[in-house]
């Protein structure tokens, strides 16, 4: 898999997590612990994307 393809894949996962976080936050019984864990996963993805982007620029 090329770096560009990996960045696209991670970007898709990042957007999907963002949607999941928004859906969870709108629920009346939103679980703040789950939201925090999802946000941490999203941040790790963003960090990996940034690292890969730095390698190709």
UniProtKB/TrEMBL annotation:
Region annotation (Disordered) ranges: 1-31
Protein name: DUF465 domain-containing protein
Database matches in Gene3D superfamilies: 6.10.280.50
InterPro entries, per the entry: DUF465, DUF465_sf
């Amino acid at each position: 898999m090329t770096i560009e393809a990996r960045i696209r894949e991670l970007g898709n996962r990042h957007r999907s997590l963002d949607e999941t976080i928004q859906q969870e936050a709108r629920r009346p019984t939103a679980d703040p612990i789950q939201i925090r864990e999802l946000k941490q996963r999203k941040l790790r993805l963003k960090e990996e994307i940034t690292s890969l982007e730095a390698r190709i620029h």
